[in-house]
Amino acid sequence: MSLLDQPQIPLPVEMEKLRAELAGIICRNTGEDGSYATAVEALHLSRHSRPHEFSPALAQPALCVMAQGRKEVRLGDESFLYDPLNYMVVSVSMPVCGRIASASPEHPILALRLDIDPAEISALIAEAGPMGVPSRPTGRGLYVERLDTQMFDALLRLTRLLDSPKDINMLAPLIRREIFYRLLRSPQGYRLYEIAVANSQSHRVCQAIKWLNGNFEQPLRIDNLAREANLSVSTLHHRFKAMTTMSPLQYQKQLRLQEARRLMLIEGLDASAAGYRVGYESPSQFSREYSRLFGAPPLRDLARLRLSV
């Protein structure tokens, strides 16, 4: 049974009131389907009124909250579900796939995303001092955690600022810091803590991920990447896979294929040109690996995408 087929647990009465107000604010500020930047820095709102199957994307560090509806996200072979009872945190950039099984114009998916700047997390840790965050082995760079009333309240106060623009500059940074502080103090806050603390192994893996994100079209030599991260080859491979479920080579491949898809869909490049642009020298290898990730060769996949828009 898919995660989205599992019965949805109702919210406690107090949290349901907060959820309904949050959904109303998102609904008022998203006229049509899509994702919208807001006047509050790092805050994005989204609405989707149609279901869609798994669609690959490069997720950036963020806190993701669902005010209405449910979404399933896959990282490698693992699936995560977030809904009004559970938020999702992406602590490092990584390729994922997302699916919405149920949505309609009458009952759209309504969600918010608060982007996370690791530098802001580092500054918060330095200012707050020892926080009692346990040190644990490297975990996934994506996790789901139960929402509590305090977190829901802080998120609601942040989105309410959209109705009082004059207060945004003064209050938004304070509320955003409160939200990040609560994330750090949550049961899985160590995952954010580890990537923000300089010289931790998780932080060094993040440096390797950052390098790959900016240089994915170049040939990958694992020993060079290990030097970039200041880790041994074996430690890099182990920690990288623990965080992303992928080896560095698999990660690079997903980045290349997602960018090639964008180049064909948005910039109109043909398959061979797009493959070459992202680092493939063999058109047949590009088509084969593209089909493996997206379920169809480039021309058929693009035709299907255009038909769905």
Strand order, sheet with most strands: 1-2-9-4-7-10
Helix content: 40-55%
Main pleated sheet: 6 strands, antiparallel
Q: How do the helices and strands follow one another from N- to C-terminus?
A: HEEEEEEEEEHEHHHHHHHHHH
Query: How much of the polypeptide forms β-strand, as a percent range?
Result: 15-25%
Tally of individual helices: 12
CATH class membership of the largest domain: Mainly Beta
Principal-axis shape: globular
Cα-to-Cα separation, first versus last residue: 28 Å
Going by CATH, the architecture of the largest domain would be Sandwich
The radius of gyration is: 20 Å
Structural class comes to alpha+beta
Number of domains: 2
Number of DSSP E strands: 10
CATH topology of the largest domain: Jelly Rolls
Protein name: Transcriptional regulator, AraC family
GO molecular function: DNA-binding transcription factor activity; sequence-specific DNA binding
Keywords: Transcription, Transcription regulation
Domain HTH araC/xylS-type: 206-304
Q: Top keywords for this entry?
A:
309 residues, alpha+beta, Jelly Rolls, Arc Repressor Mutant, subunit A, 2 domains, 6-stranded antiparallel β-sheet, 4-stranded antiparallel β-sheet, 10 strands, globular
